[in-house]
């Protein structure tokens, strides 16, 4: 929705609701809270400042979500509700092939990346998720926060490093857990998806007890949410489920070749050795008899390469939505001493197990010479859930344990200052068990002992067909499909002290201040399976580990300038250093990062019903530990030497390609942490207003802009070699002029990453992270709230939150085009709810979430001809093959969009007794699913995972007991 149209709509809603508020004055209840801009909170701390204040709204916008709101809108977990925030960007889907963190749930405010949003629990930092996001950087996991213990969630959407330090670039999410709870409440919830699968059970107990000087709050929660396999969604479990517009010429000619289930392939001519009759039927319906067909488009001929067992449903055993079990416990206790000092302590822990898979384990042997058939063969076989005994035995498993223990003292000094000291330790452990085939065991079981080698070195075996063509027993499956064990740990020890209060009396009121000092030591360790990619293959293997020390100090002031004008100022200094790498001397080479940040804000209340506000803040993000402490890893790869290609002039005679063998050769590619990384630096600006239009009706709107520089980007081997060639020659491999993005210093760093011998051949490449990229985002957040109390129809609460993305710019190099990438994102988001109650036993909540349209996954691809042939975008969608029937013809590029997507949740509660209640939850009422919104030119998963998923409508019942 364009910003102009959205603004018109917002003002229309305001005027309509204002008229309604006037019309209802005759029968409205007279009791109403004061306006949002001046609501009296007593004296509390709100996220974004350590200074206590008595008003909800301040210089920076803060969104608050209560535990009651989470339940009324139908959400079960903390991440469920945070993922619906208008400010949430796209993150790596748990169903993505090759994900490094399939059991984690990251948040990326403003779409700046998960590591640039700071997570606090009760105002304190938590341990990082041990495994790196996308194999590169650290982040926080929002899936291990017990929702039963949550009191409220406060979200500050802007830079806040001057208050909280590193990572508070896009914003801060402060999850505040229950304290001072009285009584007990048990909740039991059970539900399922109406399309099948995805059963959910949640049991929680929250309670609290207190005495004259003490209070104890506790919470226990157990949740089971079954994973959803693709096989439970028949509209997306096969290749032919993709949109027909994306079918290839081969598929339109005779359909799709099923994925290989069981096959013997002749290494010489690529034909298949057909399995004996009845073989495919032995595998519990998961294999079907198939013929491998090959289509030559230019001659329009089909060649049959032979029979094999194909998968009955190609993607049936892949993951559609992750799931598992989790149990959590929470304790918070206080004790009041006679001198006014209060001691407090809290412990929270979560233990979980998750199940996931992208491609179940398979056997791949060869090439080998088979004495029985007297051929060189490849043997390929997919292991099945029929053999394993169920999908969970086929899937991978992640077991996690996290705990956080902290304690402190707080009191009041000279009846003017509130102080607090605290210490804490948090730890997070992930044990990942990945199903993969032990190659040596599979070789021994199916091929037996090696019988020698052929003249060209191919090993000779006698394939045991009685085993190859028979399903495995459960015991045999567990013996061959081993569980590779990757372990990851992270921890943080921290201590802090802060003081806040009225410093002195100013000309317009008391000047308040807060000061804080912090020290923290954090570490992590990645311990992949020692047999990874030696005894058996693994797609994702990460190495690294170490620790570092942080010292921080900050101060902030709240200064009344006039009776209606208030200023806030803050500054902070952070030092990260004393690095130590586990198992290497890398830590000694790592420098110290020192960053000073500041912020300033203004609040002007020209009317008692109107707040005008604005803020400017700088922010930073210290380099991720994995970026600087990642352990060296190396592989032999065949890569194009771009410098030699330009030097020899090949770019003038057909370009740099694999055809030029003297520049396309095997070289050592290494990756390790970069010790001299610097912090990323940001600046954010906000400006907006809060207007109490009428009793119960308020409108909030804020403009935001966040700019981030010196972003850390992981350079791959080709980027390193391309930059080296440019630094040495000033040319690109296409013959154009190369533009230096970072001057002499940049080239010096690049040249140090490439090692060459005396003959000029590359002997080693160091790929890895450097400070190089930049980005900035801007947009508008708006919120409308309306409360209508009537004597006849009950009480209504309306809430509407809107976001419009104005600009999204991202440059890897400063010389890149600074294009607005807004159209590649979800440009607008809307989130709202209506809650009704009449003081009786029934209450209802209707919640809605709208995602605006976004660019299709394969945006810019060439459309297909009617027969399915697709030309290449690199040839401007023009067919250049003279043997092709469409030679000289062109198609157009596809610049489609997908969406918008609209979701509705309905919650109904009925109090059956003073202390007993039942709730009905219907989430995704209209059953909006991805497989009903497939993109025209996109293969598996067929739909845009930013807008859709495969779960569909979910229905649940809940029983609530207070005692």
UniProtKB/TrEMBL annotation:
Gene3D superfamilies: TonB-dependent receptor, beta-barrel domain, TonB-dependent receptor, plug domain
Cellular component annotations (GO), alphabetically ordered: cell outer membrane
Claim: Ribosomal protein is one of the keywords in the record: no
KW Transport (keyword) present: yes
Chief location of this protein within or outside the cell: membrane
Signal sequence extent: 1-25
Annotated PROSITE patterns: TONB_DEPENDENT_REC_3 (PS52016)
Domain TonB-dependent receptor-like beta-barrel: 352-925
Domain of life where this protein originates: Bacteria
Alphabetical keyword list: Cell outer membrane, Membrane, Receptor, Signal, TonB box, Transmembrane, Transmembrane beta strand, Transport
Location relative to the cell: Cell outer membrane
Domain TonB-dependent receptor plug: 59-172
InterPro entries: Beta-barrel_TonB (IPR000531), Beta-barrel_TonB_sf (IPR036942), Plug_dom (IPR012910), Plug_dom_sf (IPR037066), TonB-dep_rcpt-like (IPR039426)
Membrane-related topology note: Multi-pass membrane protein
Family: Belongs to the TonB-dependent receptor family.
Protein name per UniProt: TonB-dependent receptor plug domain-containing protein
